[in-house]
Design a protein that fits this description.
single chain, 261 residues, alpha+beta, eight-stranded mixed beta sheet, three-stranded antiparallel beta sheet, binds coenzyme A
């Protein structure tokens, strides 16, 4: 049975066993809500409910799901936004089931999201991400070509997700300029070229420190230090343009001037 039949979804992209779809029907969206619960382990109060997925679909957002057979193994949720005279998409969630990670599926969902956005005339997709999440930062900046030049302190307050480890929900705003030279060349596998002005380091132990109450204070200190560094760098007109992963798992944000706009 084709996954499109199971979900009523219209568009498909397929490679190996996984099918990526733009979905418009309740069953597929229900599967995304269940996956959200599995990935974030949110309490019901923090969970984005089915009705919000439906609204996102109805008002011009995107619900993109990755199915392996009948199982939803990844999804992206975005909603339309408007700021400074421009319409854009705000991508609120991206999730891949644990056992399917690090095989390029997250990137594939984002590329599907980009293609769909371009066909609708959008040039910008934004999302926020936790700067302490080394893997996400690498994916966003280095593999997708997003930039960041805004920092939101404790955006959602303290949430129930164990991924957050009880820390303030500080977020960098990723701007994905879909048609920019930077994005086009990074998607072709080239390195971005810029003059490095500043770097901000994240130690790999951050995951361990966040996960236990006894070490959480150390995670908090890293967050406080990096928050100050980002806020100052952005006030000075710098943008995050690169991300380095080190052998030991540490991450480093690379900042410079973004010349394109
Ligand atoms: C973020 C998420 C969607 C990524 O999905 P994914 O399918 O694993 O992503 P991809 O495989 O496309 O890309 C991950 C990249 O990070 C790399 N990576 C893996 N572990 C890493 C680490 N500890 N540090 C740095 N990079 C890492 C992978 O090698 C891969 O890069 P590559 O394509 O160059 O090999 C998934 O990890 C997830 O669901 N996380 C929990 C929810 C979440 O945090 N969502 C995002 C915020 S809304």
């Amino acid at each position: 049975m084709a996954t499109g039949e199971a979900t009523g979804a219209r568009e498909t992209v397929s490679a190996d066993s996984i099918v990526i779809l733009l979905c418009h029907d309740l069953e597929a969206m229900r599967a995304c809500v269940a996956l959200q619960k599995e990935v974030w382990n949110f309490s019901d109060a923090d969970l984005i409910p089915l009705r919000m997925f439906v609204v996102a679909d109805k008002i011009g957002g995107q619900i993109i799901a990755a199915f392996d057979g009948k199982e939803a193994v990844g999804f992206g949720l975005s909603i339309p936004g408007y700021r400074d005279g421009r319409s854009y998409l705000h991508s609120h969630m991206l999730a891949v089931r644990q056992t399917y990670r690090d095989a390029g599926l997250g990137r594939r969902i984002k590329l599907f999201q980009r293609d769909d956005a371009l066909t609708r005339g959008y040039e910008l997709i934004e999302w926020t991400f936790d700067p302490l999440e080394i893997k996400n930062a690498y994916l966003n900046i280095e593999r997708l070509g997003a930039i960041a030049r805004r920092y939101n302190i404790n955006q959602y307050g303290i949430t129930s997700s164990p991924l957050q480890g009880g820390l303030p929900t500080d977020r960098l705003v990723a701007e994905w300029w879909l048609k920019s030279k930077r994005v086009e060349s990074i998607l072709k596998g080239k390195k971005s070229q810029f003059t490095l002005v500043k770097s901000i380091s994240i130690p790999t132990q951050i995951y361990e420190w966040k996960s236990a109450p006894a070490t959480r204070q150390r995670a908090r200190e890293v967050q406080d230090r990096t928050r100050d560094e980002f806020v100052k760098a952005f006030a000075d007109g710098l943008a995050v343009l690169g991300y380095e992963r080190h052998e030991k798992g540490n991450g480093k944000f690379l900042l410079g001037q973004w010349e394109e706009r």
